[in-house]
Amino acid sequence: MQMHKPLQMLLFTAGLAATISTNAADPATNNNPQTSAKITIANVNGVPINQLSADLLRQERMARGMQPDASTDQAIRESLITAEVLAQEATRKGLDKDPVVMAVLDL
Known about the structure:
Blueprint: H1 5-20, H2 33-38, E1 40-44, E2 47-50, H3 51-63, H4 72-92, H5 99-106
Antiparallel strand pairs: 1-2
């Protein structure tokens, strides 16, 4: 079964949200998760995206072998903004109430 891009991004966002809820610190930068959660790096239609989200995504990318460089932070910020825009659109279209989508998210 092939998923549509908005659904993939919704699933990615849900996974990222679950990861964020663990409040793991970023050992690479020694950031305090409580402090990082308070720093807003972007706003999407009034929904803040915090530094903690960026730290966790950077951590995940580094765990997969990606080396950070000057463009990494900007790419991570853009990825998080895109994910939030797509999540908002999925919610607007009612995908958050679709039983199939909810079943997939519960896995």
